[in-house]
Specification:
176 residues; alpha+beta; Endonuclease, Chain A; two-stranded antiparallel sheet; 12 strands; globular
Length: 176
């Protein structure tokens, strides 16, 4: 239900995700998605596997949604160098694009720091989790998964506002 200052949702529709619960929950829900996935995220890293959390490969899980034919779109931040050798976002973005995802990147004058996932236009996940080893294993991150069509519609509109600002992902630009 929409109120003057926001939305009210029943407690049974809210899932608190933190610690070891986030990555397995993410994998399960992405695999259950049946029509669309919209992801707006600061960091998505394809250079790790997590033996501590069931050998999950969350980028592969997302790529599989593209291979299944879902309408998948992702907005990511510009690439950043980690430890002077790994550019995060680049490899994962290419993998998603190769699986059928439409990928855009924020222009260099903007920073996309949000972590928002929308599944099938009814389940919204908002929090501090990047798709990275640190978020799955060592960081203290927390996210909320909220089942609410009213909130999802608002998140969907916000996603498209960001999409219009973002530019198409072209992997060759980041290889320089």
């Amino acid at each position: 239900m929409q109120t003057e200052n926001g939305y009210t949702v029943a407690e049974k529709n809210i899932h608190l995700l933190s610690g070891d619960t986030w990555a397995p929950w993410f994998e399960k829900e992405v695999n259950r998605a049946s029509s669309s996935i919209h992801l707006s995220i600061y960091m998505i890293s394809d250079h790790w596997r997590s033996p501590d959390v069931g050998n999950l490969d969350l980028v592969e899980t997302l790529a599989n949604a593209g291979y299944r034919g879902l309408n998948c779109r992702c907005i990511i931040d510009q690439p950043h160098v980690v430890n002077r050798r790994i550019k995060f976002n680049t490899k994962a973005a290419r993998k998603l694009q190769d699986s059928g995802w439409k990928v855009r990147v924020m222009p260099s004058n903007k920073t996309l720091h949000e972590k928002v996932l929308l599944l099938d236009k009814h389940l919204s996940v908002i929090g501090s989790h990047n798709i990275s080893k640190a978020s799955a294993v060592s960081n203290f991150d927390t996210s909320l998964a909220i089942e609410s069509e009213a909130l999802a519609q608002r998140i969907y509109r916000q996603f498209w506002e960001r999409w219009r600002v973002a530019v198409p992902f072209v992997a060759d630009v980041w290889l320089r």
